[in-house]
């Protein structure tokens, strides 16, 4: 069993104050070396949770309800990042809720920056060569988890939204924040003599910092945690979970992604699953329909794992956990025991995915982009999950059960408000089953 890597950001400065799911202690400015650390084993608890994130460019799963043995085993060997250290406070809430950013990295490289085998990328991933995709974040989902349970609300950010990139980098597609910052850092670090895996790790940290800051700046709500997975990570998790049930409104065939599916319900293996979530050519809504595919896939996988009793079976979970520890990068502040008390409704299907609206299409700097009304987007998100969102209904309506709308003692639950479906890009995708999509 290997120790976990903790990436130290070259731009991380001191930071004080408390945070949800872990303290935010100060760190020396400029500390940038990659080092191995072994996490302390926390005391025995009644329940523990873990995150199994899978996004394909793309899909992320958050899980909860596993036992103490699973928590201790999984917590030993995770790949963690300190990218949150460079993030300015965005008005952290005191209601106990949590905002998690799920990042799907469209990279055909491994954690050390080495190309994945060409034959594997073309045959299994149907994703061209390792030179395609770069370090674009083709999937960005902000997930809001209310304190004490309640409905989880998630917002998918279309990858081509034309926004201001944090750090004074000007306007670009939001997916490019990661790659732009990584390239800048790599150029600087190379000049300093940094090479190999360390150069890759530190460059990716800069990419994560820029992505987190850009999303927080765009949406106007704070980010408490994040998880990142690349193309290989999605494939590995889909391979453990397969076959995955999905449903299509009509038959599709696309040579770019390899998607070749009939209409109606069907089960997909890992290679087909990747094609399912990557297809955009031949779809009426293009990238926006692909975003709905990602949301539907997440719902379907979660539904299958719950219906088959996987969450409570350590033997069934082991293969999934092996992938999480190999392919997933998470922030180093995540307090899993605390998170276990906050996210029971996610795996129970009590979640809803929305796609943030765009104002139209245009060409900027020679590229097709989505125009966005930043004020409209921020107001929409903040009205549902921001500090001014309506308070929770009386917990007596739910029988006073924690996790059913009531918050832990000393906290005030702030569930999402209800926004009209027309405010978003297409209808919402609701967890708890196998939704049918384009």
TrEMBL record:
The chain crosses the membrane at residues 45-71. Pfam families: LytR_cpsA_psr. Residues 1-43, 385-438 are annotated as: Disordered. Residues 404-414 have a biased composition (Low complexity). Residues 136-306 form the Cell envelope-related transcriptional attenuator domain. InterPro entries: LytR/CpsA/Psr_CW_biosynth, LytR_CpsA_psr. Keywords: Membrane, Transmembrane, Transmembrane helix. It comes from the Bacteria. Residues 1-14 have a biased composition (Basic and acidic residues). Residues 15-24 have a biased composition (Gly residues). PANTHER family: POLYISOPRENYL-TEICHOIC ACID--PEPTIDOGLYCAN TEICHOIC ACID TRANSFERASE TAGU. NCBIfam families: lytR_cpsA_psr. Belongs to the LytR/CpsA/Psr (LCP) family. This is Cell envelope-related transcriptional attenuator domain-containing protein.
